[in-house]
Design brief:
By secondary structure, the protein is of the alpha/beta class. It contains twelve helices and twelve strands.
Length: 342
Amino acid sequence: MVNVFQMSSLRDIAKELDVSISLVSKVLNDRLGTTGVRPPLERKIRATAEKMGYRKNLSAISLFEGRQNAIAVFVHSQNSQGSGIVGRLLDGISRATGERSQRITLEFFTDAPDFLRKRESLHAGRVDGLIVTGVNHPELSEELVAIQANGLPIVTIYNGPLHPDIVNVGIADAALSDAATTHLIASGCTRILHLSVLSSREEGHRAALTRGGLLVENELIIPMKGREGFLATAGENAIRAALQQGVLFDGVSAQSDAQAFGAINELTRAGRKVPGDVKVIGIDNAPFDELCIVPLSSVSQRFLDRGRLAVETLEALIKGAPVPTTTIEPRLHLRASTTPSV
């Protein structure tokens, strides 16, 4: 039988508390079963283990459980230049797997056929589970369900679930723009220009306006098409067109930080002060936000947190626990573009 603990540590803990090594092992491995133990004693065992610097032998545990202690991560990179989305996702995944001494098999794919070619690395016995993230591919949903049905647990990291049978760690698109526009309203804005690529985020903007007692005016919603709509040039073009048409606005709620960055550039060229004349907020909390000519307020999609949570969720699935899809709340990061210094 494989030793999944450092026996000297177990022995030390048992000796310190005058209990059996077996009881200490069962408590620390969450395998009490029908073994009765008083809650105060269980808490004392855990506290003593922490105080003595006890650590489980994770590699031995995996061997004992018949696992590889490795997961696969498949990514279709979705971030525009400088947004840092993929980096934060992988950072969160890496931190969580590092804490578990897990290995990662990383694959980047470009489209659905490329995913199908690279799925060979998912043969049973090589990895214990799979995380899929990046650009959402609905056409892969049935393939992923089939892979999962063959015994490989899967977790996706998309804003919305890919399939009801696949656990997802998400964030509501509508909540992102809702948070951004709500902040602008709280900052005194009454005519907010919205740069709209995704209808789901536009819905959040509209909901925030209605809740804030403001009219939804179509001239203040600028539609953009395709992924190019998220770029800085799209933000510049939208602001330039609005100014040329004489549209009055005192706030800009962008659907990406790159859009917002472009909006600030164009407003500055036009002699409009940010945030004095127009307050601007984006989405993504990109690394370049601090480097804008006016540091950019933004709403975070919390990719680092979601990467960590995806690993924790996958670990639970691997162990056979029922885990629901999770939707977390966005986080507001305030900087000078909406909060003028006093």
